[in-house]
Amino acid sequence: MTISAYKKRKTAVKELRNIRVWDEIECLEEEFIHGKTPFRCPEMVPAGVKDDDFCVPEDCPKTLPQPKFTSPFSSFPQNELEELERCITLANELLLALSTEDDDDETNARALQVSLRSFRNQFVTVYYRCRKKKEEVCGYFLDAGNDFIIIENADTNNITILPTGRLLSIHNMDRRKKTDDHEEPELLCINPCLRRNLTFHFGEIVTRSPYLLNIFFGLKLSMLLENYVGYYAYIQTETDKFEQDGTLEKVDESDLLLKKYDEEQWIDFEDICLIELEK
Questions:
Q1: Residues facing 256 on adjacent strands
Q2: Separation in Å, CA 199 to CA 29, 40, 209
Q3: Is the separation of the CB atoms in 143 and 214 below 8 Å?
Q4: Is residue 123 within 8 Å of 170, Cβ to Cβ?
Q5: Torsion angle of C-alpha atoms 188, 193, 196, 200, degrees rounded to 10
Q6: CA-to-CA distance for 257 and 265, rounded, in angstroms?
Q7: Helical axes 105-116 vs 78-97, angle rounded to 10°
Q8: How far apart are CA 261 and CA 279, in angstroms?
Q9: What pLDDT digit, counting tens, does each position of 83-124 carry?
Q10: Dihedral sign, Cα of residue 34, residue 38, residue 42, residue 44
Q11: pTM for the predicted model, two decimal places
């Protein structure tokens, strides 16, 4: 792809960088305001108050800065040591993901997901195989699950999903992203009530959100597509010369059902090369 074509595509999806395709959990209003009682830190709540009568407030005392010292176990300066440790961690994650001796496919899939998620919020070109041909799709890399990746398609602005088993390579085209940038922890900036609920009611809260499920456990393609039943889909398959399209009617563990007019068609996940969902 030429530089001018890349700039044109990148401009078209620039404003989509921060769009989430996941459902977010919002803290209920009554969790923030209990009558006219203002926020109070947990240390100041009387022992008789019920557990649900307070949230961790935003104005709690800030943690005092602590001095940091170079690790005594290394002769490297602190910044070089941190960069070296980061590179070692990334290399170990990639080696685990590409391991062929580990018989636990689920472990390998989770490790590959962690490695692929490092591309999030970057403009990429993804090369994949379909019908023995090399195909490509460009756009912003939104996320990765256990057996799929999600791209904000630069040509159509639709959500594009590709099975990881079809991937050949991913090329980062966002040259502005520095390689030494440290990625911000996933749930660092969330509202106080959600943070508290994750601490005290982890299972109940996480199972309500595909986004949180994917962070902590990793989603499979069938679980993701269940959230898009009713959307109009275009599906490129290994067996069909032309793409199939229709409304996503049903999703099972190993296949899905498309309906167009009065015709229905079941498509096996193993035959899928690419899925594009209209917004």
A1: 251, 267
A2: 19, 18, 15
A3: yes
A4: no
A5: -140
A6: 6
A7: 140
A8: 20
A9: 888 888 877 776 766 664 545 566 677 878 888 888 898 999
A10: negative
A11: 0.65
